[in-house]
Write a structure and sequence with these properties.
Shape: globular
Structural class: alpha/beta
Distance between the termini: 37 Å
Largest sheet: 6 strands, mixed
Order of helices and strands: HHEHEHEHHEHHHHEHEHHEEHHH
Length: 374
């Protein structure tokens, strides 16, 4: 029987769990904290069993170094990693340089791709990701250390799946099934599936856009001989672009997202232009930023407004904010400046790092000079 994904678990005060010492967390609290990173889990019972049986499980996320880092990849990822590592999880980042080359990022220039990878690591360090249980592994280096193990896995996955099944995974590369895919891009999903087992990952913690290949890995675990342990899939939600109709942020469109080293003026300008229809909560990117980034990170949103509009107010709960926005008690003209101010506070340590650290400054200059390719 196919896996049935589970929706988010019942609400728990995650902010309070985040304040507790790791040694004080119960099994159920660890489960709640890990589960809170995901819009969808496959499967809840597998996650609970894993946390019960294995004190230090391994989670993984792979990323293509493909350009500047937007706020979802920077702040949302740091939030998720910090929650998981607090529960004893070791988080392995797969710096997918070969994958970016296969997907023709940075024009397929491996040196540029690796420079972008180093820049991204600098951002996560600067923004506040807890690095105690975090590892960064470069695909080009690790695969060459154990090539027999890796390529045997890739070939076995390819052999056990037909072409149609692999093409269905093309979404993971930002492609559509109907796109004219190169042979390299057909190879890519088989390699990404192999990564999960090569890295000994117990948990796949990637976005919903990577769901299809993670499900492929669970299917392969059953098909393999001998069978392998199925990874738990924790898929975080995808942040929408800032402009109307943008379901996903785009690195190739600088107006669709806040980037991690954007200036204060750039942040204010982008938020001012962002789609934020009065009274509409669903499909509102400004409210998505508040729900998934500002409140989890800063714990509050302070809105300054005239007395005739209700006076100053501090929100610590998204449901209360959403209700006020839907009723018209909170207007976009008051919400947007508050959102821009909070984002600027979150990003300031990153700006400071890239201004004061010579190596980081040089990396950013190089990355900004590169042309982002789809």
């Amino acid at each position: 029987m196919a896996d049935q994904p589970t929706e988010p678990a019942p609400a728990v005060d995650i902010s309070q769990l985040s304040l507790k010492e790791a040694s004080e967390l119960t099994l159920e609290e660890k489960f709640a904290l890990c589960r809170s990173v995901a819009e969808e889990c496959i499967q809840d019972e597998d996650l609970r069993r894993l946390l019960e049986k294995k004190p230090n499980p391994i989670a993984y996320d792979g990323f293509e170094p493909s350009g500047r880092m937007h706020i979802a990849q920077g702040v949302l990822k740091a939030l998720n990693v910090n929650k998981l590592t607090k529960c004893g999880v070791t988080f392995r980042f797969w710096v997918a340089d070969w994958f970016a080359q296969l997907n023709n990022k940075m024009g397929g220039d491996l040196k540029k791709i690796q420079t972008v990878g180093n820049y991204m690591v600098e951002i996560w360090k600067a923004v506040g990701m807890d690095m105690d249980r975090v590892e960064f592994l470069h695909a080009s280096e690790e695969i060459n250390k154990r090539p027999d193990e890796y390529w045997t896995l890739v070939m076995d996955i390819a052999r056990r799946n037909n072409l149609k099944r692999i093409v269905r995974c093309s979404q993971i590369m930002g492609r559509a099934e109907g796109d004219d895919l190169s042979a390299a891009q057909i190879f890519y999903p088989c390699m990404q599936c192999a990564d999960i087992f090569f890295l000994k990952a117990d948990i796949c913690q990637l976005g919903m856009d990577q769901r299809k290949v993670n499900v492929l890995a669970r299917e392969y675990a059953d098909d393999a001989r001998p069978k392998r342990m199925k990874p738990v899939i924790l898929s975080h939600p995808m942040m929408p672009g800032l402009l109307q109709g943008q379901e996903k942020m785009s690195k190739s469109d600088p107006n669709s997202a806040i980037f991690m080293e954007d200036s204060e003026v750039e942040v204010r300008t982008k938020i001012k232009k962002a789609y934020c229809p009065p009274g509409e909560v669903e499909g509102n990117p400004c409210l998505s930023y508040i729900q998934h980034i500002v409140l989890p990170w800063a714990k509050q949103l302070a809105v300054a407004r005239a007395e005739k509009n209700g006076g100053n107010i501090i929100y610590t709960n998204f449901e209360e904010l959403a209700a006020d926005y839907a009723s018209g008690a909170l207007h976009p003209s008051d919400l947007k400046p508050a959102l821009a101010s909070s984002i600027n506070d979150i990003l300031q340590p990153v700006r400071d790092h890239f201004e004061s650290n010579a190596e980081a400054k040089a990396l950013l200059k190089a990355v900004k000079s590169y042309k982002t390719t789809r």
